[in-house]
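Reviewers of the previous submission asked for a worked example of the structure-prediction workflow described in the proposal, so we include one complete record here. The input consisted solely of the amino acid sequence. No template or homolog information was supplied to the procedure at any stage.
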Amino acid sequence: MSGLIKISPSILSADFSKLGEEVIALEKAGADYIHIDVMDGHFVPNLTIGPEVIKKLRPLTKKIFDVHLMISPVDKFIKDFSDAGADIITFHPEATPNVSNTINLIKKEKKKVGISLKPKSKIELIESHLEQVDLVLIMSVEPGFGGQKFMPEVLEKTKKIKELIDKKNLKTEIEIDGGINFENCIEAKEAGANVLVSGSTIFRENQGDLKKNIGILRTN
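From that input alone, the workflow returned the following structure tokens.
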């Protein structure tokens, strides 16, 4: 486990009719990042929010916007999401013809770079790029829908990525996203994740007590 555990609540599980209020409440509840899932109905089988929504949310909080782009081709949208207020822009290596080029486009916007692996994606897709990125996002469900069950088989991949990061003496964060709850968050941390994305657990457990749920995920 590397340093402090950060919690990045996924607003995919928020009440979209009052999204602004939900983001403000997450800040008050002690969230470290705000995780924003962007889906295009093409790279993954669902549609979510675009840059305009992020732009409207941006003035409401100083929290880091952790934007996960599940869109392809990804390059032409990077500037839009950067201008809208993303702080970390995460993409999938399968969504671009040239991973290094995409990383450089994000860096050119002076944003932090995240790279994501789906459950079946091989570490080799990102291994040579670890020095260039700030965050590795490991999907512990198939991307496309909220509320799925955690896939424990990704923990082995998480451990291997942690070993590679430590071996190269990097400060790269490891984020895990998908079905994270009060039990499996312990295994995720033990495997090396230091940023936990959680939607359903944060918004629905303990009668939706955001502060309590964020605290349990952080300290369990």
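The mean pLDDT is 95. We consider this example representative of the routine output the project will generate in years two and three.
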